[in-house]
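Data availability excerpt. The first of two example chains:
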Amino acid sequence: MCRFSLPPGYTRTMPVVKPKLGALLPVIDAILEADRSAPVKQRHTAKRIFERLRDEQGFAGGYTVVKDYVRVCRARGRETFVPLAHPPGHAQVDFGEAVGVIGGVRQKIHFFCMDLPQSDACFVKAYPRETTEAFLDGHVASFAFIGGVPLSILYDNLKIAVAKICGDGKRERTRTFTELVSHYLFADRFGRPGKGNDKGKVEGLVKYARANFMTPIPIAASYDDLNAMLAECCRRRQSGRAGRHAETIGERLGADLAALRGLPVVPLEPCEKRAGRVSSTALVRYRCNDYSVPTAYGFQDVVVKGFVDEVVILCAGTVIARHPRSYGEGEFVANPLHYLALIETKPNALDQAAALQGWALPEIFQHLRHLLEARMGNRGKREFIQVLRLLEAMPQEIVATAVTEAIRLGAIGFDAVKLIALARIERRPARLDLTAYPHLPRLTVKTTSAADYTALIPELAA
């Protein structure tokens, strides 16, 4: 004891011998090894191992000695990790899921996350689905938000980006992801399959955003409103601190911004492109839904661009239709104006045309139709269709005002509505040829003569 400033304590020189358990250690090891490939929720607890040893092997010892051995074995088998350094200008990307109320509908939200590990600056944006166009739009929006393009981005092996993992570990990119990388010129990196810890920063951001930005459950009128709120949350986070750093996230972000590449002059168009063909009913199918085009393009080859919030259809490089994006299945998304030219040649289809069902037109249009059909019969229906076709070239407000004015004047007909609408656009008074409307009361206007004014002079009148 005189050789030590403090008593050294007792040191065991021989291993602890567990005579009752010793022969069963290989059995316990085999159970724990089998658990590695079993579902997480169906792996053995120490208590269950003890029960099996007692029932199957006749183990007469206590539970504590089994529990202690299992704890040591599991601690020995746990994976350890290497702390990583994160140079400025690099990023990590992933998607997360949450629940929100959008437009009064409770639904699952898929949110895109980009994290800059050096500074812990982040960007989060929500989408209805985790689709190709959402993946592209998330990148375009995040680059605009942070003001540059990262030198490299680390991903997991999501199908949107990786078409195939080759035997040597290299990834074969999808065509869409290749366009994204070629446009912004960043290096793409991928983690090991099933190893989320390879991109632990963005994995942590997904959990942080869900717990802080989306708790309680977010309620928004639209995805635009929700994303405006998420962007503001990302900005506010820059005033905070993360980890052991004394500087704020915003102060450390300066090093990242200095290393980022500049944004290209023209951003990438964040859409999925698919070839299609117009059907006999002037419809183009995209992701299980049918979208209408003008009937003049029937049976033509087209290109469909699917954006997050709209579907754009092109023929020979010209945009022929735009529709709000539908995320349902088997839905019919139609613009009534696309079918009016065909209905004009088939007026009996006016009331049964699927594209016109539920068309929210002002009541004055229906009133005009009743007047036209009452005065002209079947010809009145054709004239009403011609009035509707004015909506192809003029705003609805102007046409509705022209219809109202024509009814007020008693000039019930397509020509009158068209002339009044054109006059309103050209900011001039309408000049109607009333001879075209025989139902109007005829007025006789006498030519003025100078002799007629003599009645106003008393001397001459006498």
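And the second chain:
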Amino acid sequence: MKKDIFDFEYEELVNEFSKLGLEKYRVDQVLDWIFQKKVFDFNEMSNLSKENRTVLSERFSISLPSLIDMQISNVDKTTKFLWRLEDGNTIESVLLFHSDRVTACISSQVGCAAKCVFCATGQSGFVRNLRAGEIVSQVVAMEFHRRVNIGNIVYMGMGEPLLNYDQVLKSVKILHSEKTKNMSMRRISISTVGIPEKIIKLADDLPEIKLAISLHAPNNYKRDMIVPMNKKYSVEEIIYAAKEYQKKTKNRVTFEYILIREFNDFADDAEKLAEILKGMGAYVNLIPVNPVESESNLKMERPHYWVVERFKKILDEHNIENEIRKEKGTDIDAACGQLRRRNVESQKGKKMEG
């Protein structure tokens, strides 16, 4: 069975090539073809001898995910990708276009075990973890299909990154290498629903990257209702881990807070959120919920504009830095899991018809 080039860190690949009698600079040449020139066939790598091309083709694959669907927003160029992996499973990635940079939102799992009630991915269930190479190849494939240079990466797509810790860690190191994407650690963010022990471990393993925590409620009673994993990891444990992370890294932590109408958008919720974040220097992203079909009894409806503004004002008054996230890709299935879920349901329908 061939080994996927994307699964290897640089020094690992050097070792693999040396077993075949290939020098270190051959690794540099191959990675340049893949990451810079976007050439994914060894036979087209003209500065390699024919013999070397044959040997590499026999031993390695360059496994990009297959593009099933690509939606491009007419509003802001936000691009949503649906990919098929080699085993037939599907995942999503998103490109976000800003005035000064392009950000890639990438997946770390097929589906998600967190099962947050406001997330289409969670409603589809968990299938498996992605390998490091399957994570890395999303970035390369997006650059290839949209002819862009990605400047920031967020692990905020399908899946809970800290439940696939080792492969996520490895993928970050691969993308950081100057021989591949040469991505600064400070331009990489990991978003988690909150796994306390992994947050603290992350501070030791990757102290330079940014951390975002999906909090979404200021107390355990409400968070239990929308984030099932809160029954295992309480708000207090998550805040403690975030503070420990800050002590070790000196990095500011971002908290994501999805606002759901008449559930967690009250003035009292804002006051309690300010209280638990007091003194942390935290940053809060306020996100009006993206309506999605849910098994929960809660109605996933966005708060009125003035309610969102009231929530923001209370945080401002308590000196909690925050912003109302500007929604992107409003005219496409840009929210996490929507495109995949629609595709999965379509395939099920076809099977039933057959």
